[in-house]
Specification:
Blueprint lengths: L14 E5 L3 H13 L3 E5 L2 H7 L5 E7 L7 H11 L4 E7 L3 H9 L4 E5 L3 H48 L3 E5 L5 E4 L1 H6 L19 H11 L12 E6 L2 E11 L5 E10 L1 H38 L7 H30 L8 E3 L1 H18 L3 E5 L8 E3 L1 H17 L6 E9 L2 E8 L33 H11 L3 E6 L5 E8 L11
Parallel strand pairs: 1-2, 1-3, 3-4, 4-5, 12-14
Antiparallel strand pairs: 6-7, 6-10, 8-9, 9-10, 11-13, 14-15, 15-17, 16-17
InterPro entries: CheY-like_superfamily (IPR011006), HATPase_C_sf (IPR036890), HATPase_dom (IPR003594), His_kinase_dom (IPR005467), HisK_dim/P_dom (IPR003661), HisK_dim/P_sf (IPR036097), PAS (IPR000014), PAS-like_dom_sf (IPR035965)
EC number: 2.7.13.3
Organism: uncultured Desulfobacteraceae bacterium
């Protein structure tokens, strides 16, 4: 704002106009108000004041009611008609107090009577100033509120646009598990009508009790560790599969306010898996039968060729027999891997005495270890071990693979030891050897498919590189953990931890 007079005090940012026909009152009032920090302009009559008003940024007017020419009442009316936000303080004599009251009824903010003391003028001016500042603060807050609401509305619109344009389905629920938001992709994935609205539980949109229970649990904050929330696969039809992933929606105090579920179309992946499985099974079955025939014929020929085992043709036939045996083993492993990935390798769980099962496996493989002049032992604790609720064929495959590997990767005269005991609520089985061992860089990859450790010690050992992958898949399917410790020339120890679940009920037939 323009400043009409200089002041030693910091300007208040408020312009004041004094309209009075008495020069002494104008000048004295101007000096008092200027010292208070106001920017002051003085006018001798109403006509000049109204002409000057549009050129200034006046917020407060001290207006004498009794002036020659246009009187104060008329000036007040015109100010309120054109600039209603200006605070008008009327100046009047003692004999015209009633007139001042009438002026306030017509819009004046306050009045002061002549003659007045400087303190009286300061009090009235400060009161008007507080009103002006409060009004300005209120307007500022209203503007900020409008801007905030506008920003929120714009942000909401942007977020809604983003959510609606996502290729993955998004479903948001409240704490009661009712859907409050569903984007078009979700409606498309669930094959719903495009006009399907929110407001119902997830079960109203897709008939899947498992998904409904999962969404309800997430929505009410049942999961303390969000990393434990499982993915859920939904079968919409024979040719459509979805993967649902849920996370809780948290408030400012990390309280659960509902859930957000993303729906991913995994149909191409699932169809590819099905094609891969069908291909592996078809090729494996087509190859296994002729390979088995060839292998049997080679065995028969070798049995008949007893004249000179060191002859070149005998050697070549032996190599062919070993290669066909390796191919048959590879086919079996591929089928096992395929079935594990499809979740169909493990059979129905039964009560298994693992120490007895291990004793049978060790007894069966003892011939293989004796052929290499190795010692193969099983250590069982004195205390009886609880039975394990698991698939016995899966357990045989796990421990059979581990013990066979230990025999293969331990040189002649070595030692293979099998230990079984309890570790808390888990049954622990360790297969330890003093064989070739492995460098630490291999330990993170030995459970990968087709991965084999190849060095001067192991290059002559045949294998598919699928055995440990099969073991890992089976252990995972039983809810267990497998770990390995190894060092070059110091042997390896594989540790399997399996949860003991004696009270697991038998599966309900489909």
């Amino acid at each position: 704002m323009t400043r009409k007079m200089k002041s030693d005090k910091k300007p208040l940012g408020v312009d004041v106009m004094i309209v009075d026909d008495e020069k002494g009152i104008r000048d004295a009032s101007g000096r008092i108000l200027s010292r208070m920090g106001f920017a002051v302009v003085t006018m001798p009559n109403g006509d000049e004041a109204l002409k000057k008003l549009p050129e200034t940024d006046v917020s407060m007017v001290f207006l004498d009611l009794k002036m020659p020419g246009m009187d104060g009442m008329e000036v007040l009316k015109r100010i309120k008609d054109t600039r209603p936000e200006i605070l008008v303080i009327v100046i009047t004599g003692y004999a015209t107090v009633e007139t001042a009251i009438e002026a306030m009824k017509k819009g004046a903010y306050d009045f002061i009577t002549k003659p007045f003391e400087p303190d009286q003028l300061r009090i009235v001016a400060n009161r008007a100033l507080e009103k002006i500042l409060l009004t300005e603060e209120t307007r500022k807050l209203e503007r900020e509120k409008e801007r905030t609401l506008s920003d929120l509305d714009a942000e909401k619109s942007r977020m809604l646009t983003i959510v609606n344009s996502l290729p993955n389905g998004v479903v948001v629920t409240d704490t009661g598990g009712r859907v409050v938001l569903m984007n078009p992709a979700a409606r498309g994935h669930l094959e719903l009508d495009p006009s399907a609205g929110a407001g119902k539980e997830i079960g109203a949109y897709i008939d899947d009790e498992g998904l409904g229970a999962l969404v309800a649990d997430i929505s009410r904050g049942a999961y303390v560790d969000f990393e434990d929330i499982p993915d859920y696969e939904i079968v919409i039809s024979e040719k459509k599969y979805l993967l649902a992933r849920g996370k809780p929606v948290l408030g400012e105090k990390r309280e659960c306010m509902g859930a957000v579920i993303t729906l991913i179309d995994i149909t191409p992946i699932r169809m590819l898996d099905n094609l891969k499985t069908e291909f592996i099974e078809k090729v494996s079955h087509e190859l296994r039968s002729p390979l088995s025939t060839i292998h049997e014929q080679l065995v028969s020929v070798l049995k008949e060729r007893t004249d000179d085992p060191s002859a070149q043709d005998h050697y070549l036939l032996s190599r062919a027999r070993e290669k066909t045996k390796g191919l048959i083993s590879l086919i079996g492993d591929l089928l096992d891997i395929s079935r594990i990935e499809d979740g169909i390798l493990c059979h129905e769980r039964q009560t298994v005495a693992v120490d007895t099962l291990l004793a049978d496996i060790v007894d069966f493989l003892s011939a293989k270890s004796r052929a290499k002049d190795q010692t193969l032992t099983l250590s069982v604790p004195d205390e009886p071990l609880p039975p394990l609720n698991a698939d016995p064929m899966g357990l045989e495959s796990i421990f059979g693979n581990l013990i066979t590997n230990a025999i293969h990767y331990t040189p002649e005269g070595g030692r293979v030891e099998v230990f079984i005991d309890m570790a808390g609520i888990n049954m622990r089985v360790r297969v330890s050897d003093n064989g070739f061992g492995m460098d630490g860089r291999h330990l993170d990859r030995i459970f990968d498919k087709f991965y084999r450790v190849k060095d001067d010690n192991t290059r002559h050992i045949t294998g598919t590189g699928l055995g440990l992958s099969i073991v890992k898949g089976l252990v995972d399917s039983l809810g267990g953990i497998i770990e390995v410790e190894s060092a070059p020339s110091s042997g390896s120890t594989f540790t399997v931890l399996l949860p003991v679940q004696p009270d697991v009920p038998d599966p309900v037939p489909a």
